[in-house]
Design goal:
The structure is a single chain. The chain folds into four domains: 293 residues, no CATH class; 74 residues, no CATH class; 252 residues, Immunoglobulin-like (Sandwich); 77 residues, Immunoglobulin-like, CATH 2.60.40. The chain contains one helix and 56 strands. The strands form 14 sheets. Strands 20, 22, 23, 25, 27 and 28 form a six-stranded mixed beta sheet that branches. Strands 1-2-3-7-6 form a five-stranded antiparallel beta sheet, with no helix packed on it. A hairpin with a 2-residue loop joins strand 55 and strand 56. The longest helix is centred in the N-terminal third of the chain and has 4 residues.
Length: 750
C-alpha cells in the first residue's frame, strides 16, 4: 500500500429554468484523500465544494450539520461529525462556461465558489461512512459511501439525486432504495407502496435550456476534465441504501410497477452522463403527482452486479468468527461454479464480483486445512439483500502435526548493469509452527550487495538460521544484488533456496528461481520464470511467475496505466495471485481476461525522472492439471498509457515437460556464448564462445519477438551471420547441436 489513495469526483448540478432563483446553489462536489495511518486506521481528508448563484446576492453558503460525515450503524445513517473547520475558504466569483454543451445554454450567470475542508478517521474493517452534502436548504444529497470492504484500496462510491425545493415529496420518503442493479439497467424499488401505484421515469439531461435527452457525458469536453473519464471510474461500483447500485446505462422512459419492483431498460448506450430524473406517480391511469430531481452521475459500462469481500483467516478458537488476534493468511482456495470476477492477494484478502443469479462455491485447496463450516464449503449466491457483504472465511486444521512450507522467489528488476531486489517468500501452510534454516545460493553472475535479517554470507551462499514461522504466518527475506552487464545478455540467472527443519536438519522445502538475463531496448516487456533452456521447460506442477514492466518514454506524465492480458486456457485461473506491484492497483479477472489498473499514478516521463518513470507488476499462476505433455503456454500483454494506443509486449512461452533431467542443457551450462556486436547497428554478427567445450557445428535459428522463426543458418563460430534483411527490434537466436537446443541469446538490432 502506498502512502495515499486519491479519489476525486466533481459533481455539477444544473437547475431547471422555472427554479433558477437567487436562493439556489448551482453546483458542487467533493474531493478527498485516504491516507493509511500507523495504527491501522485511515485519515479521510478533503473538501466539499459549492457553487451558488451570485445574482441578487443569493442565499448564504450552508455549512450546518447536513454537510459532514454520516456513519451507518447497521440500521440507519447517523450524523457523526461536521467539518473540522466551518470557516469558508477560497470564496471567489466564477462564470459558467458559455455555450454549455450539456444544456445547450449560453449562460451569463455569475456564481461564487466556496470550499469546506474536513477530516475523518476511518477504520476500513468496520465502518461504513457517507460523506453528505446538501444543496441549499433541502435534505442531503448522498455523494459518497465508503463501505467496509476489508481491503483499503477498494471504496464504493454512491451518488443520489435530491428532489427540488418546491412542494414535491422528499427523496427520503419516496425512494428509500432506488437501485440500479445490472448491465440491463434494471431498476428496483423496495419501498412498501400500494400495488396499483406505479412510477414513470424519464431520463435525460436537465431541461434548463431545452437540451436534448441522452446527450453523452463527453470525455473530450471541458466539463468534466478528460481525466474524469479514465480509470478508476470505469470500475467504480455505486451503492445506496441497502442495495448494490452497479454499473448501468441511461436511456428512455418506462413505467415501473412496484408490484414487480423492477423494469428493464434495453439500452445500448455506454459512457458517462449528466442527467436528471423526472417522475410521475400514478394510481391506475390517474396521475397522483409529478416531480423531478436533477443530478450528475458517473455511469460505468461494466456488467458486474454484486460484491463480496473479506479475509481468509486462521480460526484459532473454532467459532467461525474473525476475532482479535486471529491471523489473516492467503490460504489457497478451490473455486467451483460460474466464471466471475475474483481476486486474492498475499495478505489474505479476497474480493468476488458476481453477476445476477450466479453461484460460486469455495473449498480449501490444502488437504491439511478446511473451511470451518458444516460442509467445509462456503457458497456465494446472488441476488443478496445488502449492498456489500463482508464475509471472512475461517480455516481450521484437519490434520495435526503437519510440517509444510511453501516458498518462492521474486525480483523487482532484471536489467543489465542495474541493482535488483531479491525477495524470498516463505509461508507456513502446515498445522504446526516451524523453526527453520534457510539457505539461498545466488548465481555467480550476481554481485551480492546486502541482505536483511542478519544472514551469514559466505561467497554466493546466504544462510538465515533459526527462523520462527508460526502456523498461517508468512516471512519475507529480502536482499539486493548487482546484475551483470550486457555482455552476459541471454545467460541464465539461477537462485536456489533450501529450507531445513530444526533441530532434525531435514529438508522440508526447496525451490529455485530461473530467469534469462535480457537487456531489452524496449522497457515495456514481459518476462517469465522458470525459463530453462531456449525451450523454457516447465514442470506441470510449477508456478509460472510473470513480470510485466512498463516505462513512460513520452514527454509528459501518464496519469493512468492499464495492463490487459489474455491468459491461456491451459492456465488455472483459480491459482492466479499478484505478488508484487510498484504502484497501487486493482484488477479484474473474468473469463481469462485480465485487466490490471494503475489509477492516478502520474508516471513521470523518463527525460524528467528516470526512477519514477518505471513500474512493474509480478503475478503467478499454475498450469491446469490436464495440460498436455509438450504443450507450449504463450502469453503476451498490452500496456496502455492513458488513452494512447497500446504497447504490445514480447511473447513469452513455457514448454510443459513432466520430467526434466539433471543434465538437461541449460543456456549457461555449456559455456558462455556471446553475440558480437550486440546491440548491432550493421548487417552482420559473429558468435563468439568465451569458454567452448562443444563441437563447432551449431545450427542457428532466429526468431522475432512474437516467437516466429524468420531465419535459419548453419554457421560455424567466428564466421559472420548476415542479418541485413532484419528490421530494427529484438530478436532471439536459438542454438542447436545435434538437434538439441543448447542456448537462447537475445539480439538487439538498432
Amino acid at each position: 500500500m502506498k502512502n495515499c489513495i486519491k479519489l476525486s469526483i466533481l459533481l455539477f448540478i444544473f437547475l431547471f429554468p422555472e427554479r433558477m432563483l437567487s436562493d439556489h446553489i448551482v453546483g458542487g462536489g467533493v474531493e478527498y484523500d485516504i491516507t493509511p495511518l500507523n495504527d491501522g486506521t485511515f485519515l479521510v481528508s478533503g473538501r466539499f465544494i459549492e457553487y451558488r448563484n451570485a445574482v441578487s446576492g443569493g442565499s448564504p453558503f450552508d455549512y450546518t450539520k447536513e454537510i459532514g460525515v454520516y456513519r451507518y450503524n447497521g440500521i440507519q445513517w447517523i450524523f457523526e461529525v461536521a467539518f473540522v473547520t466551518k470557516t469558508l475558504q477560497n470564496i471567489k466569483a466564477v462564470r459558467n462556461i458559455p455555450g454549455n454543451i450539456y444544456c445547450n445554454q449560453n449562460s451569463a450567470i455569475v456564481t461564487e465558489f466556496a470550499e469546506y475542508p474536513f477530516e475523518y478517521i476511518l477504520n476500513a474493517q468496520n465502518n461504513t461512512v457517507m460523506l453528505a452534502w446538501q444543496r441549499c436548504c433541502r435534505e442531503p444529497d448522498i455523494i459518497n459511501v465508503l463501505p467496509s470492504l476489508g481491503m483499503v484500496n477498494f471504496f464504493t462510491i454512491t451518488q443520489k439525486g435530491q428532489v427540488t425545493k418546491h412542494s414535491s415529496p422528499r427523496i427520503q420518503n419516496n425512494f428509500k432504495s432506488l437501485t440500479f442493479v445490472n448491465e440491463d439497467n434494471e431498476i428496483s424499488i423496495f419501498e412498501n407502496t400500494p400495488q396499483d401505484v406505479s412510477y414513470k421515469f424519464d431520463w435525460g439531461i436537465p431541461k434548463i435550456s431545452g437540451g436534448t435527452s441522452l446527450v453523452p457525458y463527453d470525455c473530450n469536453s471541458p466539463i468534466p476534465a478528460p481525466s474524469k473519464c479514465l480509470p478508476p471510474f470505469t470500475d467504480i461500483y455505486y451503492a445506496e441504501g441497502f442495495s448494490h447500485l452497479m454499473p448501468f446505462h441511461i436511456t428512455g422512459s418506462q413505467s415501473i410497477n412496484t408490484d414487480t419492483g423492477h423494469i428493464l431498460f434495453n439500452s445500448s448506450l455506454n459512457g458517462n452522463f449528466l442527467t436528471c430524473i423526472a417522475y410521475e406517480v400514478y394510481s391506475g391511469n390517474n396521475k397522483l403527482s409529478e416531480s423531478s430531481f436533477d443530478f450528475a452521475i458517473l455511469v460505468t459500462t461494466g456488467n458486474i452486479n454484486y460484491f463480496f469481500g473479506g479475509d481468509r483467516f486462521y480460526d484459532k478458537n473454532g467459532n467461525s468468527v474473525k476475532d482479535v488476534g486471529e491471523t489473516s493468511f492467503h490460504f489457497p482456495i478451490v473455486k467451483e461454479g460460474e466464471d466471475c470476477g475474483i481476486q486474492f492477494d498475499e495478505s489474505g484478502a479476497y474480493s468476488l464480483f458476481l453477476k445476477n443469479n450466479q453461484n460460486v462455491v469455495f473449498t480449501s485447496e490444502l488437504p491439511e486445512w478446511k473451511i470451518n463450516t458444516t460442509d467445509s464449503k462456503i457458497t456465494f449466491t446472488t441476488p443478496h439483500p445488502v449492498f456489500t457483504d463482508t464475509v471472512h472465511i475461517p480455516f481450521v486444521p484437519v490434520i495435526s502435526d503437519v510440517k509444510k512450507l511453501n516458498g518462492y522467489v521474486v525480483q523487482d528488476n532484471l536489467r543489465c548493469n542495474e541493482d535488483a531486489e531479491i525477495i524470498c517468500n516463505l509461508s507456513n501452510t502446515g498445522t504446526v509452527a516451524n523453526n527453520v534454516t534457510v539457505i539461498m545460493i545466488i548465481d555467480s553472475l550476481l554481485e551480492i550487495t546486502d541482505f536483511q535479517s542478519q544472514p551469514v554470507i559466505n561467497g554466493d551462499t546466504i544462510v538465515w538460521e533459526n527462523l520462527f514461522i508460526d502456523v498461517a504466518q508468512s516471512l519475507q527475506l529480502k536482499g539486493n544484488v548487482k546484475l551483470p552487464n550486457e555482455m552476459f545478455t541471454g545467460q541464465e540467472i539461477n537462485i536456489h533456496v533450501t529450507v531445513k527443519e530444526l533441530p532434525s536438519n531435514s529438508v522440508i522445502d526447496s525451490f529455485e528461481y530461473i530467469r534469462i538475463l535480457e537487456c531489452a531496448v524496449d522497457p515495456n516487456d514481459k518476462q517469465v520464470s522458470p525459463s530453462r533452456t531456449c525451450l523454457n521447460l516447465t514442470k506441470p506442477e510449477e508456478y509460472l511467475y510473470y513480470t510485466i514492466r512498463f516505462e513512460n518514454l513520452g514527454n509528459a506524465y501518464a496519469k493512468d496505466v492499464i495492463i490487459v492480458d489474455s491468459l491461456s486456457e491451459m492456465l488455472d485461473i483459480n491459482t492466479f495471485e499478484i505478488l508484487e506491484s510498484s504502484h497501487n492497483h486493482y484488477y479484474k479477472l473474468t473469463d481469462r481476461h485480465l485487466e490490471i489498473y494503475f489509477p492516478d499514478i502520474k508516471l513521470q516521463p523518463f527525460i524528467l525522472d528516470s526512477v519514477k518513470s518505471k513500474g512493474q507488476i509480478i503475478f503467478r499462476i499454475k498450469p491446469t492439471i490436464d495440460v498436455p505433455e509438450g504443450y507450449k503456454i504463450y502469453n503476451t500483454a498490452s500496456i496502455y498509457f492513458d488513452r494512447n494506443e497500446p504497447i504490445i509486449t514480447n511473447t513469452t512461452f513455457n514448454t510443459i515437460r513432466s520430467f526434466i533431467s539433471e543434465d538437461e542443457p541449460l543456456s549457461s551450462g555449456t559455456g558462455k556464448i556471446l553475440i558480437s556486436p550486440n546491440p548491432v547497428g550493421n548487417d552482420k554478427i559473429i558468435l563468439l564462445p568465451e569458454i567452448w567445450v562443444l563441437p563447432l557445428d551449431v545450427r542457428v535459428r532466429i526468431y522475432n519477438s512474437t516467437g516466429k522463426n524468420i531465419q535459419n543458418t548453419d554457421e560455424m563460430f567466428g564466421k559472420p551471420i548476415d542479418i541485413s534483411h532484419l528490421g530494427n527490434g529484438i530478436f532471439f537466436l536459438h542454438l542447436f547441436h545435434k538437434g538439441k537446443c543448447i542456448s537462447a541469446l537475445p539480439l538487439i538490432k538498432l
